[in-house]
Amino acid sequence: MSTTAALPTPAGVSGKEPDPQLHRIETIPGIGRALIVCTPIPLGTRILCEKPLFTTTSTSYKVMNADITKKLRALPVESQRQFLSLHNNFTGTLYPFTGTFITNALPCGPDSDTAGVYATICLINHSCSPNAHTNWNNALQKETLHATRPIVPGEQITICYTQTWPSYDRRAYLKHQFGFDCACTLCQLPAVLLKRSDARRSEIVSLDKLIGDANLLMSNPQEALAACHKLLIVVNEELWDGGSTPLLARLYYDAVQITITHGDQARASVFAQRAYEARVVCDGEDSPETERMKGFARDPSSHKNFGSSKKWKSKKAQVPKDLGDEEFEAWLWRVEKR
Ligand SMILES: C[S@@+](CC[C@H](N)C(=O)[O-])C[C@H]1O[C@@H](n2cnc3c(N)ncnc32)[C@H](O)[C@@H]1O
């Protein structure tokens, strides 16, 4: 698989309401309710765009329980029923509403300590190799769900409740937080293949940590960019299945930050375009983060880090136009000729 593969243009339906006929609810023994696909869903389709039943901010379980009780009382009976029917992995505890909430809640944004629960999105089960992605769209004040690969009728819509961790870390987290033993296709791989997947995922975790080191960004941007390139190769080996993943969008944005910090507008514009394309698939054209990436692709100098260093100074117009794919990637990732 080429690491340079351009992302297919998503058949997204931004601006259009998601089609409620795309899926139905079914009960699967041992798993509970699930969303099952009725008609083929192309890559990038917005499957759901849902308002939370309510949101609450993380505090003590006791205070959360009181807040949820108040908010539940204010809801229509049908919405109350929807919340009360959600799975609770913490039954028998002192604060039952908090238990149901933390089993199902999704954060309202990546760093937010406010989270929401949803009548339909909270019925989506987990897979370590999911076919869809949820995201809080702050402009719409709704949670969206997009197909991150084509999904066929009869297939269950799944999202990933964990990060891209090795199986031993995923299992421990899922057991503790949700009370189940994951039996997804990835976790059921024969031992030898699972070991290879775990090795790749360990590498993803280490590279992610290295790329997040702000000192490296300033002191050795070449090494930071090489780590992004390596991460792209490992992510494609481990996760590429004809679709996309938010990890791709993130790593391309990391590459934007590294290059623009050192004044390289040419490369930053290409990386921003790729981050934008990955975001369109995962979050939709109207997500604020997608629009932000589009803005950097148009004008990389609008990034707050631009001008910190002139080490790799270039203009956007200096993106080479006459290189073959391989040569272009070597230029983009600053791969030194041996
Ligand atoms: C957010 S709910 C998903 C909807 C749930 N199936 C229901 O009936 O309400 C999360 C719970 O679903 C179940 N679940 C989700 N993914 C699963 C999986 N891959 N294997 C087994 N159970 C799973 C677990 O009980 C988990 O705590």
Draw up the topology in text:
Blueprint: E1 23-28, E2 32-37, E3 46-50, E4 54-57, H1 61-73, H2 77-84, H3 96-104, E5 106-107, E6 114-117, E7 125-126, E8 132-137, E9 142-147, E10 158-159, H4 167-178, H5 191-211, H6 214-219, H7 221-239, H8 246-261, H9 265-283, H10 288-298, H11 325-332
Parallel strand pairs: 7-10
Antiparallel strand pairs: 1-2, 3-9, 4-6, 5-6, 8-9
Helix pairs in contact: 1-3, 5-7, 7-8, 8-9, 9-10
The structure holds S-adenosylmethionine.
S-adenosylmethionine binds near residues 33, 103, 122 and 125.
Provide an overview of this structure.
InterPro entries: SET_dom (IPR001214), SET_dom_sf (IPR046341), SET_domain_protein (IPR053185), TPR-like_helical_dom_sf (IPR011990). Pfam families: SET. The chain is an alpha+beta fold and 338 residues long. It folds into two domains: 159 residues, Beta-clip-like (Beta Complex); 142 residues, Serine Threonine Protein Phosphatase 5, Tetratricopeptide repeat (Alpha Horseshoe). It is built from eleven helices and ten strands. α1 crosses α3 and α9 runs antiparallel to α10. It is globular and about 65 Å long. The structure holds S-adenosylmethionine (SAM). S-adenosylmethionine binds next to β2, α3 and β7.
